Amino acid sequence: xxxxxxxxxxxxxxxxxxxxxxxxxxxxxxxxxxxxxxxxxxxxxxxxxxxxxxxxxxxxxxxxxxxxxxxxxxxxxxxxxxxxxxxxxxxxxxxxxxxxxxxxxxxxxxxxxxxxxxxxxxxxxxxxxxxxxxxxxxxxxxxxxxxxxxxxxxxxxxxxxxxxxxxxxxxxxxxxxxxxxxxxxxxxxxxxxxxxxxxxxxxxxxxxxxxxxxxxxxxxxxxxxxxxxxxxxxxxxxxxxxxxxxxxxxxxxxxxxxxxxxxxxxxxxxxxxxxxxxxxxxxxxxxx
Amino acid sequence: xxxxxxxxxxxxxxxxxxxxxxxxxxxxxxxxxxxxxxxxxxxxxxxxxxxxxxxxxxxxxxxxxxxxxxxxxxxxxxxxxxxxxxxxxxxxxxxxxxxxxxxxxxxxxxxxxxxxxxxxxxxxxxxxxxxx
Lengths: 288, 132
Hints:
Number of helices of chain B: 6
Shape of chain A: rod-shaped
Radius of gyration of chain B: 15 Å
Number of strands of chain A: 5
CATH architecture of the largest domain in chain A: Orthogonal Bundle
Distance between the termini of chain A: 107 Å
Order of helices and strands of chain B: EEHEHEHEHHH
CATH class of chain B: Alpha Beta
Number of strands of chain B: 5
Number of domains of chain B: 1
CATH architecture of chain B: 2-Layer Sandwich
Structural class of chain A: alpha/beta
Distance between the termini of chain B: 32 Å
CATH topology of chain B: Transcription Regulator spoIIAA
Number of helices of chain A: 11
Largest sheet of chain A: 5 strands, mixed
Helix content of chain A: 55-70%
CATH topology of the largest domain in chain A: Globin-like
Oligomer: heterodimer
Strand content of chain B: 15-25%
Shape of chain B: globular
Strand order of the largest sheet of chain B: 1-2-3-4-5
Protein backbone atom coordinates (compact mmCIF):
# COMPACT_ATOMS: atom_id res chain seq x y z
CA UNK A 1 0.00 0.00 0.00
CA UNK A 2 1.53 3.22 -1.08
CA UNK A 3 -1.48 5.55 -0.91
CA UNK A 4 -1.39 8.55 1.37
CA UNK A 5 -2.97 8.02 4.82
CA UNK A 6 -5.74 10.58 4.30
CA UNK A 7 -6.72 9.01 1.00
CA UNK A 8 -6.96 5.60 2.70
CA UNK A 9 -9.04 7.00 5.52
CA UNK A 10 -11.51 8.77 3.26
CA UNK A 11 -11.79 5.66 1.10
CA UNK A 12 -12.47 3.54 4.18
CA UNK A 13 -15.17 5.93 5.34
CA UNK A 14 -16.79 5.82 1.97
CA UNK A 15 -16.74 2.09 1.31
CA UNK A 16 -17.66 0.91 4.81
CA UNK A 17 -20.11 3.63 5.70
CA UNK A 18 -23.06 1.39 6.49
CA UNK A 19 -20.98 -1.19 8.42
CA UNK A 20 -19.38 1.52 10.51
CA UNK A 21 -22.78 3.04 11.16
CA UNK A 22 -24.19 -0.26 12.45
CA UNK A 23 -21.29 -0.84 14.80
CA UNK A 24 -21.27 2.77 15.91
CA UNK A 25 -24.98 2.55 16.74
CA UNK A 26 -24.34 -0.52 18.87
CA UNK A 27 -21.59 1.33 20.71
CA UNK A 28 -23.81 4.29 21.35
CA UNK A 29 -26.81 2.28 22.45
CA UNK A 30 -24.64 0.40 24.96
CA UNK A 31 -23.38 3.66 26.35
CA UNK A 32 -26.82 5.23 26.53
CA UNK A 33 -28.68 2.18 27.82
CA UNK A 34 -29.29 3.69 31.26
CA UNK A 35 -31.59 6.47 30.11
CA UNK A 36 -34.12 7.08 27.40
CA UNK A 37 -33.32 10.74 26.87
CA UNK A 38 -33.08 10.10 23.15
CA UNK A 39 -34.86 7.61 20.90
CA UNK A 40 -32.93 5.04 18.93
CA UNK A 41 -34.45 6.14 15.64
CA UNK A 42 -33.48 9.74 16.33
CA UNK A 43 -29.97 8.74 17.29
CA UNK A 44 -29.69 6.62 14.19
CA UNK A 45 -30.73 9.41 11.87
CA UNK A 46 -28.27 11.75 13.60
CA UNK A 47 -25.49 9.20 13.30
CA UNK A 48 -26.27 8.45 9.67
CA UNK A 49 -26.38 12.10 8.77
CA UNK A 50 -23.12 12.81 10.58
CA UNK A 51 -21.34 9.89 8.96
CA UNK A 52 -22.43 10.77 5.44
CA UNK A 53 -21.48 14.42 5.96
CA UNK A 54 -18.14 13.36 7.44
CA UNK A 55 -17.27 11.06 4.61
CA UNK A 56 -18.20 13.60 1.94
CA UNK A 57 -16.16 16.24 3.80
CA UNK A 58 -13.26 13.81 4.01
CA UNK A 59 -13.22 13.43 0.23
CA UNK A 60 -12.34 17.07 -0.28
CA UNK A 61 -9.23 18.85 0.86
CA UNK A 62 -7.35 18.43 4.10
CA UNK A 63 -8.96 15.70 6.15
CA UNK A 64 -7.95 16.95 9.61
CA UNK A 65 -8.71 20.60 8.96
CA UNK A 66 -12.07 20.58 10.79
CA UNK A 67 -12.16 24.39 10.91
CA UNK A 68 -11.86 24.54 7.10
CA UNK A 69 -14.68 25.27 4.67
CA UNK A 70 -15.10 21.62 3.61
CA UNK A 71 -16.23 20.76 7.16
CA UNK A 72 -18.79 23.57 7.34
CA UNK A 73 -21.82 21.29 7.18
CA UNK A 74 -20.27 18.76 9.58
CA UNK A 75 -19.70 21.56 12.08
CA UNK A 76 -23.25 22.84 11.72
CA UNK A 77 -24.66 19.39 12.21
CA UNK A 78 -22.48 18.67 15.25
CA UNK A 79 -23.41 22.06 16.66
CA UNK A 80 -27.12 21.21 16.38
CA UNK A 81 -26.56 17.84 18.05
CA UNK A 82 -24.60 19.43 20.93
CA UNK A 83 -27.14 22.15 21.46
CA UNK A 84 -30.11 19.80 21.45
CA UNK A 85 -28.29 17.47 23.83
CA UNK A 86 -27.41 20.27 26.21
CA UNK A 87 -31.10 21.30 26.31
CA UNK A 88 -32.17 17.65 26.79
CA UNK A 89 -30.02 17.45 29.89
CA UNK A 90 -27.12 15.35 28.66
CA UNK A 91 -23.84 15.64 30.53
CA UNK A 92 -20.82 16.97 28.64
CA UNK A 93 -19.21 13.53 28.45
CA UNK A 94 -22.41 11.97 27.13
CA UNK A 95 -22.47 14.61 24.45
CA UNK A 96 -18.84 14.13 23.51
CA UNK A 97 -19.31 10.36 23.44
CA UNK A 98 -21.40 10.81 20.28
CA UNK A 99 -18.16 11.44 18.40
CA UNK A 100 -15.72 9.45 20.50
CA UNK A 101 -17.72 6.23 20.25
CA UNK A 102 -17.03 6.27 16.54
CA UNK A 103 -13.39 5.44 17.26
CA UNK A 104 -13.80 1.76 17.99
CA UNK A 105 -15.71 0.79 14.81
CA UNK A 106 -13.49 3.00 12.68
CA UNK A 107 -10.26 1.65 14.15
CA UNK A 108 -11.52 -1.91 13.72
CA UNK A 109 -12.07 -1.23 10.03
CA UNK A 110 -8.63 0.30 9.66
CA UNK A 111 -7.06 -2.63 11.40
CA UNK A 112 -8.68 -5.29 9.18
CA UNK A 113 -8.00 -3.27 6.07
CA UNK A 114 -4.34 -2.57 6.77
CA UNK A 115 -3.39 -5.69 8.73
CA UNK A 116 -0.40 -6.32 6.47
CA UNK A 117 0.96 -2.80 6.36
CA UNK A 118 2.16 -1.73 9.80
CA UNK A 119 3.43 1.63 8.71
CA UNK A 120 0.23 2.74 7.01
CA UNK A 121 -1.79 1.31 9.88
CA UNK A 122 -0.06 3.55 12.37
CA UNK A 123 -0.34 6.58 10.11
CA UNK A 124 -4.03 6.12 9.32
CA UNK A 125 -4.89 5.37 12.96
CA UNK A 126 -3.16 8.54 14.04
CA UNK A 127 -4.98 10.51 11.38
CA UNK A 128 -8.36 9.11 12.45
CA UNK A 129 -7.61 9.85 16.12
CA UNK A 130 -6.66 13.40 15.31
CA UNK A 131 -9.81 13.93 13.26
CA UNK A 132 -12.20 12.46 15.83
CA UNK A 133 -10.51 14.23 18.73
CA UNK A 134 -10.91 17.57 17.03
CA UNK A 135 -14.56 16.88 16.27
CA UNK A 136 -15.14 15.67 19.84
CA UNK A 137 -13.60 18.79 21.31
CA UNK A 138 -15.70 20.89 18.99
CA UNK A 139 -18.81 19.15 20.33
CA UNK A 140 -17.83 19.93 23.90
CA UNK A 141 -17.09 23.51 23.02
CA UNK A 142 -20.51 24.02 21.46
CA UNK A 143 -22.13 22.26 24.42
CA UNK A 144 -20.38 24.65 26.80
CA UNK A 145 -21.28 27.64 24.69
CA UNK A 146 -24.98 26.78 24.56
CA UNK A 147 -24.97 26.28 28.33
CA UNK A 148 -23.35 29.69 28.77
CA UNK A 149 -26.02 31.23 26.56
CA UNK A 150 -28.72 29.71 28.73
CA UNK A 151 -27.08 31.09 31.88
CA UNK A 152 -26.66 34.54 30.39
CA UNK A 153 -30.28 34.62 29.26
CA UNK A 154 -31.53 33.50 32.65
CA UNK A 155 -29.43 36.12 34.40
CA UNK A 156 -30.94 38.76 32.16
CA UNK A 157 -34.46 37.52 32.81
CA UNK A 158 -33.81 37.40 36.53
CA UNK A 159 -32.59 40.97 36.43
CA UNK A 160 -35.77 42.12 34.72
CA UNK A 161 -38.03 40.00 36.88
CA UNK A 162 -36.55 41.19 40.11
CA UNK A 163 -37.00 44.90 39.54
CA UNK A 164 -40.68 45.65 38.98
CA UNK A 165 -41.81 49.20 39.65
CA UNK A 166 -45.49 49.22 40.54
CA UNK A 167 -47.87 52.11 40.80
CA UNK A 168 -49.70 52.07 44.13
CA UNK A 169 -51.71 55.26 43.88
CA UNK A 170 -51.74 58.49 41.95
CA UNK A 171 -48.25 59.86 42.35
CA UNK A 172 -47.01 56.94 44.46
CA UNK A 173 -44.71 54.24 43.13
CA UNK A 174 -43.47 51.15 44.94
CA UNK A 175 -40.35 49.15 44.24
CA UNK A 176 -40.36 45.79 46.04
CA UNK A 177 -36.76 44.59 46.00
CA UNK A 178 -36.00 40.89 46.29
CA UNK A 179 -32.61 39.24 46.55
CA UNK A 180 -29.11 40.45 47.15
CA UNK A 181 -28.27 43.91 45.91
CA UNK A 182 -25.06 44.09 43.94
CA UNK A 183 -23.79 46.98 41.86
CA UNK A 184 -25.17 45.75 38.54
CA UNK A 185 -28.62 45.15 39.98
CA UNK A 186 -28.73 48.43 41.82
CA UNK A 187 -27.87 50.22 38.61
CA UNK A 188 -30.83 48.57 36.86
CA UNK A 189 -33.10 49.23 39.82
CA UNK A 190 -32.07 52.87 39.94
CA UNK A 191 -32.53 53.40 36.24
CA UNK A 192 -35.92 51.73 36.04
CA UNK A 193 -37.19 53.60 39.10
CA UNK A 194 -36.06 57.00 37.81
CA UNK A 195 -37.46 56.25 34.39
CA UNK A 196 -40.83 55.36 35.88
CA UNK A 197 -40.78 58.53 37.98
CA UNK A 198 -40.41 60.56 34.79
CA UNK A 199 -43.12 58.58 32.99
CA UNK A 200 -45.70 58.71 35.76
CA UNK A 201 -44.78 62.02 37.34
CA UNK A 202 -44.87 60.33 40.73
CA UNK A 203 -43.75 62.44 43.67
CA UNK A 204 -43.17 59.60 46.09
CA UNK A 205 -41.39 56.29 45.59
CA UNK A 206 -41.44 53.58 48.23
CA UNK A 207 -38.43 51.25 48.16
CA UNK A 208 -39.40 48.07 50.00
CA UNK A 209 -36.46 45.94 51.08
CA UNK A 210 -38.39 43.17 52.81
CA UNK A 211 -36.95 40.68 50.34
CA UNK A 212 -33.35 41.79 50.70
CA UNK A 213 -31.61 39.20 52.91
CA UNK A 214 -28.71 41.27 54.16
CA UNK A 215 -27.73 44.90 54.16
CA UNK A 216 -24.07 45.86 54.26
CA UNK A 217 -22.40 49.21 53.84
CA UNK A 218 -22.29 48.81 50.07
CA UNK A 219 -25.99 48.01 49.85
CA UNK A 220 -26.82 50.95 52.07
CA UNK A 221 -24.68 53.20 49.91
CA UNK A 222 -26.49 51.99 46.79
CA UNK A 223 -29.84 52.68 48.42
CA UNK A 224 -28.77 56.16 49.45
CA UNK A 225 -27.58 56.90 45.92
CA UNK A 226 -30.96 55.88 44.54
CA UNK A 227 -32.76 58.05 47.07
CA UNK A 228 -30.50 61.03 46.30
CA UNK A 229 -30.94 60.66 42.56
CA UNK A 230 -34.72 60.52 42.94
CA UNK A 231 -34.59 63.58 45.16
CA UNK A 232 -32.55 65.47 42.55
CA UNK A 233 -35.33 64.78 40.09
CA UNK A 234 -37.92 66.08 42.51
CA UNK A 235 -39.33 62.87 43.98
CA UNK A 236 -39.19 61.80 47.61
CA UNK A 237 -38.23 58.25 48.60
CA UNK A 238 -39.40 56.20 51.56
CA UNK A 239 -37.52 53.05 52.51
CA UNK A 240 -39.74 50.39 54.01
CA UNK A 241 -39.57 46.76 55.04
CA UNK A 242 -36.61 47.15 57.36
CA UNK A 243 -36.50 44.06 59.54
CA UNK A 244 -35.26 44.27 63.16
CA UNK A 245 -31.97 42.51 62.37
CA UNK A 246 -31.34 44.87 59.47
CA UNK A 247 -32.05 47.88 61.66
CA UNK A 248 -29.47 46.55 64.11
CA UNK A 249 -26.95 45.92 61.34
CA UNK A 250 -27.39 49.40 59.93
CA UNK A 251 -26.68 50.96 63.32
CA UNK A 252 -23.75 48.63 64.06
CA UNK A 253 -22.20 49.44 60.71
CA UNK A 254 -22.55 53.11 61.46
CA UNK A 255 -24.45 53.74 58.24
CA UNK A 256 -26.07 57.14 58.24
CA UNK A 257 -29.36 57.00 56.39
CA UNK A 258 -29.49 60.75 56.77
CA UNK A 259 -32.88 62.32 56.44
CA UNK A 260 -34.37 59.46 54.44
CA UNK A 261 -37.80 58.50 55.69
CA UNK A 262 -37.79 54.88 56.87
CA UNK A 263 -40.75 52.73 57.84
CA UNK A 264 -41.03 49.20 59.17
CA UNK A 265 -43.64 47.98 56.73
CA UNK A 266 -44.89 48.84 53.28
CA UNK A 267 -48.30 49.64 54.76
CA UNK A 268 -46.81 52.28 57.07
CA UNK A 269 -44.87 53.76 54.19
CA UNK A 270 -47.98 53.86 52.01
CA UNK A 271 -49.98 55.61 54.73
CA UNK A 272 -47.21 58.18 55.10
CA UNK A 273 -47.07 58.66 51.34
CA UNK A 274 -50.82 59.25 51.18
CA UNK A 275 -50.54 61.77 53.98
CA UNK A 276 -47.78 63.58 52.18
CA UNK A 277 -49.61 63.81 48.86
CA UNK A 278 -52.94 64.49 50.54
CA UNK A 279 -51.48 67.32 52.54
CA UNK A 280 -49.96 68.88 49.50
CA UNK A 281 -53.17 68.64 47.51
CA UNK A 282 -55.14 70.26 50.33
CA UNK A 283 -52.63 73.08 50.46
CA UNK A 284 -52.87 73.60 46.72
CA UNK A 285 -56.66 73.81 46.99
CA UNK A 286 -56.53 76.20 49.92
CA UNK A 287 -54.40 78.56 47.89
CA UNK A 288 -56.87 78.39 45.00
CA UNK B 1 -23.93 84.49 20.96
CA UNK B 2 -26.17 82.25 23.06
CA UNK B 3 -28.24 83.78 25.78
CA UNK B 4 -30.32 82.08 28.37
CA UNK B 5 -33.74 83.71 28.66
CA UNK B 6 -35.05 84.67 32.11
CA UNK B 7 -38.82 84.93 32.13
CA UNK B 8 -40.79 86.65 34.85
CA UNK B 9 -43.98 84.85 35.90
CA UNK B 10 -45.79 86.87 38.57
CA UNK B 11 -43.32 86.83 41.45
CA UNK B 12 -41.24 83.97 40.08
CA UNK B 13 -38.40 83.85 37.58
CA UNK B 14 -38.22 81.00 35.09
CA UNK B 15 -34.86 80.06 33.60
CA UNK B 16 -34.91 77.43 30.88
CA UNK B 17 -31.50 76.09 30.00
CA UNK B 18 -31.64 74.72 26.49
CA UNK B 19 -28.09 75.12 25.23
CA UNK B 20 -24.81 73.63 26.32
CA UNK B 21 -23.47 75.48 29.29
CA UNK B 22 -19.95 76.79 29.23
CA UNK B 23 -18.02 78.98 31.62
CA UNK B 24 -18.84 82.37 30.17
CA UNK B 25 -22.52 81.57 29.68
CA UNK B 26 -22.76 80.38 33.26
CA UNK B 27 -21.13 83.51 34.63
CA UNK B 28 -23.39 85.64 32.46
CA UNK B 29 -26.42 83.75 33.74
CA UNK B 30 -25.36 84.26 37.36
CA UNK B 31 -24.90 87.93 36.67
CA UNK B 32 -28.23 88.47 34.90
CA UNK B 33 -30.21 86.31 37.29
CA UNK B 34 -28.99 88.07 40.44
CA UNK B 35 -29.71 91.42 38.79
CA UNK B 36 -33.21 90.35 37.85
CA UNK B 37 -33.93 88.99 41.32
CA UNK B 38 -33.01 92.26 42.95
CA UNK B 39 -34.86 94.29 40.28
CA UNK B 40 -38.10 92.36 40.44
CA UNK B 41 -37.98 91.24 44.05
CA UNK B 42 -38.82 87.74 42.89
CA UNK B 43 -39.30 85.29 45.70
CA UNK B 44 -38.68 82.17 43.68
CA UNK B 45 -36.44 80.95 40.85
CA UNK B 46 -37.28 77.95 38.71
CA UNK B 47 -34.40 76.46 36.75
CA UNK B 48 -35.69 74.08 34.11
CA UNK B 49 -32.99 71.65 32.97
CA UNK B 50 -35.28 69.13 31.28
CA UNK B 51 -33.50 69.58 27.96
CA UNK B 52 -30.03 69.03 29.38
CA UNK B 53 -28.71 65.60 28.40
CA UNK B 54 -25.26 65.91 29.83
CA UNK B 55 -24.02 67.52 33.00
CA UNK B 56 -20.58 67.67 34.49
CA UNK B 57 -19.25 68.79 37.82
CA UNK B 58 -19.04 72.34 36.54
CA UNK B 59 -22.74 72.64 35.80
CA UNK B 60 -23.57 70.90 39.04
CA UNK B 61 -21.53 73.42 40.97
CA UNK B 62 -22.99 76.28 38.98
CA UNK B 63 -26.53 75.23 39.91
CA UNK B 64 -25.52 75.07 43.58
CA UNK B 65 -23.96 78.53 43.31
CA UNK B 66 -27.01 80.06 41.69
CA UNK B 67 -29.22 78.58 44.39
CA UNK B 68 -26.96 79.95 47.12
CA UNK B 69 -26.88 83.42 45.54
CA UNK B 70 -30.65 83.47 45.13
CA UNK B 71 -31.05 82.49 48.78
CA UNK B 72 -28.89 85.42 49.83
CA UNK B 73 -31.27 87.61 47.84
CA UNK B 74 -34.19 85.96 49.64
CA UNK B 75 -35.47 83.90 46.75
CA UNK B 76 -36.03 80.14 46.82
CA UNK B 77 -34.54 78.08 43.97
CA UNK B 78 -36.19 74.99 42.57
CA UNK B 79 -34.44 72.85 39.95
CA UNK B 80 -37.05 71.13 37.81
CA UNK B 81 -37.15 68.40 35.19
CA UNK B 82 -33.84 66.71 35.81
CA UNK B 83 -33.48 63.61 33.65
CA UNK B 84 -32.70 60.21 35.20
CA UNK B 85 -29.32 59.94 33.50
CA UNK B 86 -28.38 63.40 34.72
CA UNK B 87 -29.46 62.58 38.27
CA UNK B 88 -27.41 59.38 38.26
CA UNK B 89 -24.37 61.25 36.95
CA UNK B 90 -24.62 63.92 39.62
CA UNK B 91 -24.93 61.31 42.37
CA UNK B 92 -21.93 59.42 41.02
CA UNK B 93 -19.99 62.68 40.96
CA UNK B 94 -20.97 63.21 44.59
CA UNK B 95 -22.88 66.39 43.78
CA UNK B 96 -26.13 66.01 45.65
CA UNK B 97 -27.02 69.71 45.45
CA UNK B 98 -27.67 70.21 49.16
CA UNK B 99 -30.02 73.07 49.87
CA UNK B 100 -31.44 73.04 46.36
CA UNK B 101 -35.08 72.06 46.07
CA UNK B 102 -36.22 69.90 43.18
CA UNK B 103 -39.46 69.13 41.38
CA UNK B 104 -40.46 66.86 38.54
CA UNK B 105 -41.69 69.61 36.22
CA UNK B 106 -42.29 73.36 36.08
CA UNK B 107 -45.90 72.95 37.18
CA UNK B 108 -44.97 71.07 40.35
CA UNK B 109 -42.07 73.43 40.95
CA UNK B 110 -44.42 76.43 40.92
CA UNK B 111 -46.83 74.65 43.25
CA UNK B 112 -43.94 73.92 45.59
CA UNK B 113 -42.82 77.55 45.63
CA UNK B 114 -46.37 78.83 46.10
CA UNK B 115 -47.05 76.90 49.26
CA UNK B 116 -43.63 77.14 50.89
CA UNK B 117 -43.67 80.85 51.67
CA UNK B 118 -47.30 81.86 51.26
CA UNK B 119 -47.17 84.62 53.85
CA UNK B 120 -44.67 86.84 52.08
CA UNK B 121 -46.78 88.12 49.19
CA UNK B 122 -49.45 89.26 51.59
CA UNK B 123 -47.04 91.39 53.56
CA UNK B 124 -47.28 95.07 52.67
CA UNK B 125 -43.55 95.71 52.55
CA UNK B 126 -43.10 92.89 50.04
CA UNK B 127 -45.77 94.41 47.83
CA UNK B 128 -44.22 97.81 48.19
CA UNK B 129 -40.82 96.50 47.20
CA UNK B 130 -42.07 94.74 44.10
CA UNK B 131 -43.62 97.95 42.87
CA UNK B 132 -40.35 99.83 43.11
